[in-house]
């Protein structure tokens, strides 16, 4: 039997290929891991409702880490282990700081996605996530009216613009929010404890799994905390060099079924 008891998988650019599909080899490998008694969780920046179809496709019947770790909810029962939203005050600050730049902003409430207006970026996001996008006008007015803490706030732009924006907002909000990039063109703002590492620790604590019994596989900056936390932190070959430096093992790329390689080598092998 494998010494590993839990497998945590990022979705985009890790398990999924460029068409947002699970390659057959990786699907089969995840199924064999589950048959071997290994729990599987998906650890993604996606919304819960965007992650659930992949969980069903893979037969995953455990808690899912969604919204970068802000919402951990069971794939089958819908039971919420915890929800750590962005405090409304900080969410409004993010919007105020970003507004002068004119970058599109996504706001997530009750597992729904809201934007100020429909744009090319929101349409691309809708296609990727397969989730409807609702335009509500001024986001500040919308949030103040709802008077509710959003699960996450996301800004969309070119990477070099987001890097400059991050340099502006981190001194203001960096001690109150978790700020990271999930993709080069997504800058994400979440609760300070909403990261995949803390979420993974909560799940394994719930299941009684040891830290050294975890494999976590990812590719980007938002995966660093869980890669560092897991007993075996794996990074796919298509990741950037600075992410690969954090890995215990670098597998082949998402297009080459890196997740299958990990399962075959460390769980089935």
UniProtKB/TrEMBL annotation:
Any matching Pfam family: Hydrolase_3
SUPFAM superfamilies cross-referenced by the UniProt entry: HAD-like
Lineage top rank: taxon: Bacteria
Cellular component annotations (GO), alphabetically ordered: cytosol
One MF annotation (Gene Ontology) recorded for this entry: magnesium ion binding
Stored InterPro entries: Cof (IPR000150), HAD-like_sf (IPR036412), HAD-SF_hydro_IIB (IPR006379), HAD_sf (IPR023214)
Protein name: Uncharacterized protein
